[in-house]
């Protein structure tokens, strides 16, 4: 099993922890990671865009001038795409962007993403993260102590003090083992996980 150093909020080493190879030591499948990221970004799209074609805009039922002997190019409608107020060529219509991915593939992709953080030495394990009050400055100090920039902070449970203290820090996001996903893991440079959260992740995904 791989081992990771455990730090306290002051950035000091306080021990080590063994990581389950079934979650943090798998063979990385870049293809599945790519599919998971594409799927998540696609599923975020609303797909509600709409523009009118020349068949849907109002007006234009009458030919604007006769076909010949006017000196103008022939025109059949004032609602053709080249006219101001005309319809849009190949206008977008509402559609569903959702992509499907098997549950086993999604789990394998997340394990690959977590393993990549371990291999890149971008996984920081905290013994505990307990704040006495909501204070962004204190959260920033802790991240500075850990030398964690662009961090995804994973706690075992939803901690309102941690969430509120971190939400105004640029490129910092919070999650729990139930909400952690491939895109967030790969988007952030550092993965900061509490010991309790490591145990929960291993329990769910091992």
Summarize the structure.
The protein is an alpha/beta fold and 206 residues long. It has two domains: 2-45 and 98-205, Ribosomal protein L4/L1 (Ribosomal Protein L4, Chain: A), CATH 3.40.1370.10; 48-96, no CATH class. The protein has seven helices and six strands.
What is the C-alpha radius of gyration, as a whole number of Å?
Answer: 27 Å
Q: What is the SS-derived class?
A: alpha/beta
- SSE order in H/E notation? EEHHHEHEHEHEH
At the fold tier of CATH, the topology name of the largest domain is Ribosomal Protein L4, Chain: A
Strand tally is 6
**Proportion of beta-strand residues:** 5-15%
Known CATH architecture of the largest domain: 3-Layer(aba) Sandwich
Summed up, the helix count is 7
Count of distinct structural domains: 2
Shape: elongated
Lateral strand order in the biggest sheet: 2-1-3-6-4-5
CATH C-level class of the largest domain: Alpha Beta
CATH superfamily of the largest domain: Ribosomal protein L4/L1
Q: Termini distance?
A: 13 Å
Largest sheet: number of strands, sense, barrel closure: 6 strands, mixed
Could you list the spans in which at least 5 consecutive residues all have pLDDT below 50? Answer: none
The mean pLDDT is 94
- Approximately how much helix is present in the residues? 25-40%
